């Protein structure tokens, strides 16, 4: 806090460090976004594979936790959920096409919720620096969600890689444009 004005203030070093980190993250997100746009099927396959792996790991952990349950019913429920997660992981990994279509539906929900949330956030941020970029990013996310929904299920073939790439790219630009600046 600045004692004379009572406003929040940052040191030049802290502002530069935080700003540099957000810039770096933004640049990395732009690069990842461009790669996903360039090879959408590879991006979709990678996303489905990662989800399958995460489901499998979660299932194994859930199974292991069943042996530490305090009751038989709790242990049985953990075994059931663990087995279900492992079966879902196996289905996603062995049938990536079905995984892509399911992930496309999840992506629709994600983009719509992100878009609405960022539009609300931008309106709350107004007139602070970067609020327009946050609004723009929210509108892009919402529009992408509606585009995917309008073309589903055919959009499953191209949507995950291409639209996720566009979203990541714009989020990277938003991080760079709306990064905090030193007020000192």
Q: Please provide the ordered H/E string of secondary-structure elements.
A: HHHHHH
Strand residues, percent:
under 5%
Shape verdict: globular
Rounded to the nearest angstrom, the distance between the terminal CA atoms is 11 Å
Quickly count the helices.
Answer: 6
- Kindly give the count of domains: 1
Uncertain stretches of 5 or more adjacent residues? 1-15
Percentage of residues in helical conformation: over 70%
Overall average residue pLDDT = 83
How many β-strands, per DSSP? 0
| Alpha-carbon Rg, integer | 21 Å
Main sheet, how many strands, which sense, barrel? none
Helix/strand class: mainly alpha
Which key phrases capture this entry?
single chain; 184 residues; mainly alpha; 6 helices
SSE topology:
Elements: H1 12-38, H2 40-66, H3 72-94, H4 96-125, H5 131-151, H6 159-177
What does this structure look like?
Helix 1 packs antiparallel against helix 6 and helix 2 packs antiparallel against helix 3. With 184 residues, the chain is an all-alpha fold. The termini are close together. It has one domain. The protein contains six helices and no strands. The N terminus is likely disordered.
What is this structure, in a nutshell?
With 184 residues, this protein is mainly α.
């Amino acid at each position: 806090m600045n004692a004379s004005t009572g406003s929040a203030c940052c040191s030049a070093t802290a502002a530069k460090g935080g700003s540099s980190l957000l810039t770096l993250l933004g640049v990395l997100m732009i690069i990842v976004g461009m790669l996903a746009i360039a090879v959408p099927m590879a991006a979709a396959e990678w996303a489905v594979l990662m989800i399958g792996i995460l489901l499998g790991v979660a299932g194994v952990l859930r199974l292991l936790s069943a042996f530490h349950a305090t009751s038989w019913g709790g242990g049985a429920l953990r075994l059931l959920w663990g087995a279900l997660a492992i079966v879902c992981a196996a289905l996603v990994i062995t049938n990536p096409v079905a995984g892509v279509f399911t992930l496309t539906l999840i992506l629709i929900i994600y983009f719509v919720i992100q878009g609405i949330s960022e539009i609300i956030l931008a309106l709350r941020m107004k007139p602070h620096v970067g609020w327009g970029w946050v609004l723009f990013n929210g509108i892009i996310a919402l529009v992408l969600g509606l585009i995917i929904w309008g073309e589903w299920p055919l959009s499953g073939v191209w949507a995950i890689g291409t639209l996720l790439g566009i979203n990541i790219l714009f989020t990277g630009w938003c991080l760079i444009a709306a990064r905090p600046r030193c007020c000192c």
